[in-house]
Description:
Layout lengths: L3 H9 L3 H8 L3 H8 L3 E2 L2 H10 L22 E2 L1 E4 L2 E5 L5 E3 L1
Parallel strand pairs: 1-2
Antiparallel strand pairs: 3-4, 4-5
Amino acid sequence: MTTALNDFMTRTGLSDAKMAEQIGCDRSLVNKMRRGVVQPTLDRAAAIEEASDGAVPMKSWISRRDDHDSSFSGVETTASPGNASVHSPSGQEAAA
């Protein structure tokens, strides 16, 4: 699965580490978002849009239910020892 983020980073030669630095996260999370394994939170999607000067708009992360298969695509999570949360599509955190 190709993503707008992957297309942008490939086209510009931007590394996972450099994008992670620009949007304030771990490079492994950038890699997962590039591959479409996880979806960013709304705040992270906004940071990506800003860092890419609009080349990767927030709306690029949204797909219609009938535009993709029924396989699950993960969402970005926030975890600490003994406490994990999942960012739901509404932007609210729910216990994982």
